[in-house]
Give the backbone structure.
Amino acid sequence: MGSFFAGVKAGTLGGILYVGGIAVFNVFILYALKSSFLVAINQIAPIQCPLHPTVNGSAEDCFDAQLAVYVPFSAFVGFFVAIVWAGIFGLYYDIIPSRGFALKGLVFAAIIGFNLFLFNLSGYVFDPSSQAATGIMMILWTPVFGYILGRLYKRYTKTVEISSQDPALLRVFVDGRESTGRVKTFATTSNHKLRAEVAEDASFREWQATGGITLEDVRSFETTMEVNDNGKVVGNVGTKY
C-alpha cells in the first residue's frame, strides 16, 4: 500500500494541468469548428443545450452557453474525478503491476482518461472532425498526464525497505499490515506505527534504522517511525534459550 494523500496531492497539481488542458482544447475546438457546431446544435439543441435563455433562443445562445457553463462545469467535475483516482493511485501504488513511476502513472492516467470519456467530460464530438481531433488530443495528452502524475507522486513520497533479522522469528507490521521483506512507499514527513511480532521461543532486541528514518524508541517492540527520506528499518531478534 502507498500513500493516498500523496496521490491526492500529486493528482491536484497534475489534474489542474490535465483537465485545464482539455478545457482549453475544447474552447479551441468550439471556435475552430463553430460553423459545424451551429449546424449540429440546430438539430439537437433541446437535448444538448437546455439552458436556452428564451423560448426563441438561437444556436448562438447555445454556443455561448457551452463556453460559459458547460466547459467550466466539465473541467470542474473532471478535476474531482482525477483527484479521486489519483488518491486510489497513491493508495495502491506499491502493488500496481508495473515498474517505474512513469509506467504506474500511465496506467492510472489511462483509467482517468477513460472515466472522463465515459462521463462525456473529455471533449465535444459533433462531427467527424471534432471526433478525430478530440481522440488524438486525448491519446497524446493522457500519457503526458500519466508521467506528471507518477513524477509528482515520487516527489512527495519516500521508499522504506522493511526487513527482519530472522523472518522466521520476527515479523514486522507497519500500520497494522504485515510488511516483512517489502519496500513500501510513504508520504514524506509522515509517521507510522511500527510493531514487531516474535515467535514464542524468541525475544525482541531492537530496531535498526538507516537513511532518513527516525524511530521514537528503538528498544520497544512497538514504536513510531517518521519518514523523512529513503531508508531501511530492520527488526533484530534473538532466541530465549
Remarks:
- The CA atoms of residues 105 and 150 lie 4 Å apart.
- Residues 4-156 form one domain.
- Strands lie at 157-164, 170-174, 177-178, 182-187, 190-198, 202-215, 222-239.
